[in-house]
Write a structure and sequence with these properties.
two-stranded antiparallel ribbon, alpha/beta, about 40% helix, 8-stranded parallel beta barrel, TIM Barrel, Luciferase-like_dom, 16 helices, about 450 residues
Length: about 450
């Protein structure tokens, strides 16, 4: 029996209104490392497999060509580099894993491979690498680019980036260091290999000036949902990060990924999808619904516009009063931006030729930006029922990436204290950790 894997997405613990919501931290403010360390300890106590940190390096400034709305409302800003925080959390825990995000569009594979190798040592084998292809103009500007790289080229660069990282992680064999005091030989040169990669995007001599880490290489995560993104997932991902909240789209994503995995010569059963969901728990259904409705005041319209525009790389303030979804999709494609996420979901639900009014678009956009529609509200038993249903419908491979729809830490602690025991009672999740590394715990049965 395949059991669900559970991760917590801590990418937006304080943004989009979370900093002031009921149940948020009192007496501590982002980025106090103690907040994350305390949550890591609690999550490990509940058997959560991984704490996940998405990332973006720019302040959203696509909406009306200004960052003012994002700064004013705390929209996906501020965001620290979480690698030092992970090093601190690792010292307070021993089993839970950590997923870090770096851009293959702007970063260099040698730097990232070396950093993640070191963190895998520090955490004793508990690191995952979420590989992203960046499609946001604010991020591009911070790395000296005037516009976005061609969509498909971003994924070609990503695949070469991962290839280089893999070769670097393999460039020093286990046992290379012999440290023989009698002979004075420190290491065996026959086990240290140059890479000499000369590709389209990168030239790297290698080897990595490091010894193999406990996992050999980090667990690789990828979240592409476009046809080209799914092909990249099939090429190298150990686990895929998928958008939850709409079961037909999830089933379609799973089917398209399986087809791509077969085409890539890989077994579909070996690659799970962690579906992004939000959970609101209550002792009764009425209490859970009431808690969910508190989300309605969390984001004003200006903040919604800033959120959607940034994540698509397209200024939605320019929308006319009425338009066809196909027209918007075409404009985004021409800008080399991304249709993944909100617009992709609208097209899946309504069809590419559907027309919408501007007012209706932003009403739906609020539901997406807050995660309202992907938030499962109920008692531990009814939420567990829904997760089991979705897990079975999408092939019983992978599990769920739980985001906090209300506040940190209360909504995630509810998952640990209320939902996990119910899932464990049903045998839907494991009873503790199967091994010591993230690879053993996240990718095992």
């Amino acid at each position: 029996m395949n059991r669900m894997k559970l991760a917590f997405d801590l990418s937006f613990t304080h943004t989009e209104g979370g900093w002031s919501a009921p149940g948020s931290w009192v007496g501590a403010a982002y980025p106090d490392v103690r907040m994350f360390t305390e949550l890591a300890i609690a999550a490990e106590r509940g058997g959560i497999d991984m704490l996940f940190f998405g990332d973006g390096t720019g302040i959203p400034d696509t909406w009306e060509s200004s960052m003012d709305a994002a700064v004013r409302h705390g929209v996906q800003w501020p965001r620290q580099d979480m690698s030092p925080f992970v090093a601190a959390m690792a010292q307070a825990t021993s089993r839970i894993g950590f997923g870090l995000t770096y851009s293959s569009t702007y970063m260099h594979p040698f730097y990232v491979a070396r950093l993640l190798n070191s963190l895998d040592h520090v955490t004793a084998g508990r690191i995952a690498f979420n590989v992203v292809a960046s499609g946001r103009l604010a991020d591009a500007a911070n790395y000296g680019h005037d516009g976005l790289m061609d969509h498909d080229s971003r994924y070609e660069r990503m695949e070469e980036f991962v290839e280089v990282c893999r070769r670097l992680w393999d460039s020093v064999e286990p046992g290379a260091i012999v440290a023989d005091r009698e002979t004075g030989v420190f290491a065996d040169p026959s086990k240290v290999h140059r890479v000499d990669h000369d590709g389209t995007h990168f030239r790297v001599a290698g080897p990595l000036p490091a010894v193999p880490s406990p996992q050999g290489r980090p667990v690789l995560v990828q979240a592409g949902a476009s046809p080209r993104g799914i092909a990249a997932s099939a090429a190298f991902a150990d686990v895929v990060f998928g958008l939850g909240g709409h079961l037909p789209s999830q089933v379609s994503h799973r089917a398209r990924l399986d087809e791509a995995l077969v085409a890539a010569g890989r077994a579909p059963e070996d690659v799970g999808i962690l579906w992004a969901i939000q959970v609101v728990l209550g002792e009764t259904e009425a209490e859970a619904r009431a808690k969910k409705e508190r989300m309605t005041g969390s984001l004003p319209p200006e903040a919604v516009g800033a959120y959607l525009s940034y994540n698509h790389g397209f200024d939605f303030s320019t929308l006319p009063e009425r338009f066809a979804l196909a027209e918007v999709a075409e404009a985004i494609t021409e800008a080399q931006a991304t249709q993944a996420g909100f617009l992709q979901r609208l097209i899946a639900q309504r069809g590419e030729d559907a027309e919408m009014e501007r007012r209706e678009f932003f009403e739906e956009g609020w539901r997406f930006a807050t995660g309202y529609d992907q938030t499962i509200a109920g008692t531990p038993a009814t939420v567990a029922d829904e997760l089991e249903k979705q897990f079975a419908a999408t092939g019983s491979r992978g599990g769920f990436m739980v985001c906090n729809p209300m506040s940190m830490p209360s909504s995630l602690l509810d998952v640990v204290h209320l939902l996990v025991p119910e899932l464990r009672r049903r045998g839907a999740v494991g009873d503790g950790y199967a091994g010591t590394t993230l690879r053993e715990n996240l990718l095992g049965a």
